[in-house]
Amino acid sequence: MNPQLQYQIEQFLYAKSALCDAQDWDAYLELFDEQCEYHLPQWESEHEYTKDPKRGMSLIYYANRSGLEDRVYRIRTGKAASTVPMPRTAHFVDNVRIAELDGGQLEVKANWHTLFCRLGMSDQFYGYVTYHLKPAGESWKITRKHIVLLNDTINSVLDFYHL
C-alpha cells in the first residue's frame, strides 16, 4: 500500500474521531456522504452477527445520513434524555488496513476503542469497523460505516458518538 495514502487515511480517521470528541457535529456530519449507510449489527450468537440490516436485528441502522442528522438534532434540542448531559468521549483508532475498491473507492478496516464518562461514571466500548470511502476534493466522504461492537453487554446508553 502507498505509504502516503496510508498516512492520509489514518489522519482522516483521527480527525473524524477528534470532531466527535469535540462534539463538532456539523463538521462530523460533513464527513458522511448523504447516501451513507451506517450499520451496527446485533450479535445472533457468540460468534455470528446479523449481516443484512433489513432482515436481522441491528443495534443501530441508518440507510442514509439523515439518521445521523436526526440524532444530532435530538442532541442539540435536548429531545434525547439519554444525552443530557452529553458524555465526554475519547476515541482511539488502530490497525488501519486499506484495500482499493472499484470506482476509486477504498475499503478501510480498523480497530476502535472509545472511553467515555457521563455523570461521573466511566465505561468503554470497543470493536472493529469497516468504512467505504470515496474521494471528495482533497479529502474523503464516508459512504458506508459498518461497526462490530465486541463488548455488546451494554450497561449504559449506546449512540453513534460511542462508536
From TrEMBL:
Pfam families: Ring_hydroxyl_B (PF00866). Keywords: Aromatic hydrocarbons catabolism, Dioxygenase, Oxidoreductase. GO terms for biological process: 3-phenylpropionate catabolic process. This is Anthranilate 1,2-dioxygenase. Belongs to the bacterial ring-hydroxylating dioxygenase beta subunit family. It comes from the Bacteria. InterPro entries: Anthranilate_1-2-diOase_ssu, NTF2-like_dom_sf, Rng_hydr_dOase-bsu. The keyword Transcription regulation does not apply. NCBIfam families: anthran_1_2_B. GO terms for molecular function: dioxygenase activity.
